[in-house]
User: Fold this.
Amino acid sequence: MTAVDLAQNTLDGLMVGASYALLAVGFTLIFGVMRRLNLAYGPTIMAGVYLGTAAFISLGAPTLVVLVVVIIGAALVGLYVERLCFRPFGEGARAASMVASFALWMQLEEAATHLLPQHMNPFPPLLATQPLEIGPLLLRADHLVMLAATLLIAGAVTYLLARTKLGLAIRAVIDQPRAAAIVGIHVERVMMLTFVLASAIGGVAGFLIAATDGQVTHMIGMWATTKGLVAMMLGGLGSVKGAIAGGLLLGILEAHAQWFLGPQVRDMVAWGLLFVLLAFWPGGLMGAKALDRTMAVGRRV
Amino acid sequence: MDFYLGLLQIMGVHTLLGLSAYVVLLTGQVSLAQAGFMAIGAYVAAMLTVLSGWPLIAALIAGALVAGFMACLVGFPALRVHGLMLVVATLAFTEIVRLFFFNFDYQIARGSIRVGPLGGEGFRQIRYFPENGWTTLHVAIFIWSVVALVMAALWWMDRSRAGAVLRAVGEDEIAAQSCGINLTAVKVSAMTAGGAIAGLAGGIYAHYTTHIEQTNFTIMVATFAIAYPILGGLSSIFGTVAAVVFIQGFLIEGLRFLGDWRNLLFGALIVLVMNIRPSGLLDARTMATLRRLFGRREG
Assistant:
């Protein structure tokens, strides 16, 4: 164990964490406006990625076209999930939305295996260059792109929320949906737009993850849901900054846990940390110390 | 015939699983920890019969007690959080348990083979039923006797003061608290009872499948557990049974002739039912109608 290993692990973790952070940003937006858990978030991303890889395999679409297909696919599937699982139920029926989104999860996985029956599918790589060498450390160029994209999107979302009229409407709906409706905000449309936007962000994350791996399986759906959820929760609910911090932290933590304890203990460390954090420090990293974090969401977004 | 008996066994275990989530849901808590408790009950009961040679009933009770004890331990910290936070905390618990058994080896030699849990390979050779000459029919009868026992206990509990207290906490925590109800005690008790029932379900599951592994106890199972009572409605334990029959009997087995397209329809039908009946198949009004039909007066 040398300082170089430590630095390399931290660096690798940071890069992987960038994808977690992006997943968490989308998740946190959905949770902010809906206050309900969307189990179909990862499968939505998977559906988009599968559409993209299908375009790549059968039509030979170039990388940029694949990106567009993935984003549009994820956004449309997100709309479908919102229509079936969230629009029909009020905020009182949280568990009903969750169960419905779980049912759609199974449906989307089945649809994906119908589209591409083989387990592993090729995905167009982002950049096929050699890793950069910075002193003794190695850095993959596509990881750098991922980190840059994450920071860019986080910045854009922050700008949208803080500076635009739609952002104002979103914050109003998050804060107090009924009051927002009274002042003339079309609450359902804002919810729908946020949901679609979040799904599209998830699509970008899914594209970057699949492109750095160069392949994709249908496991990416469940993977994206759990990683996004843990990263969102670590950072504290409903905060874009928190989602980024939580994602990067989760990545770094996992990299070190894998190095010191092995790959099988890695996930256990992440879940264990999450449990302890939720039980004893429920505000999250960026959160207030309020017990009921849903109340704190509005103040932070 | 064996096919239908097998289906009955699956339904029995899933009914127990659904009932374990039902108890916790009555207090308004959505717990995804049931799969974790089920795993604990499954491994404990199977290790006791296979490795220590315990009789089945004692092993099942021990598995349920250990799972209930774990539920009690988890209940205290987890129930400090509400809503989505509780969902995620309990999901974390289920994943921790699953990953624990993924890394858990404890094998002893028995004759020419080694038995016991072996990490990712799972726990094979849980052969209590075949070794003791139980037929599929015996097993099905046994499972449904346990289910009937648990249902009778829950039905009685539902009609006693304990049921009223649980529902009061589920309806409005602040109102319940101002009536002098100790919220923590009620929630932890419900969690413990739910954990014990899930552990019982796990023990039975381990013995009739004869082979368990960590992939049997994922978030998928945890979501199924809460899907049954939510789809069935929280007005009565019979809603959970109706939902198990609907999902396991109709959606999974009844639609098998559709082949690969089954899961597409499966999702759509659950969403459809949730849309038509957001408070469950057997909601309060249906239950009232049923009571009228069967001639019992409303109290």
Chain B has 13 helices and two strands. Chain B has one domain: 2-218.
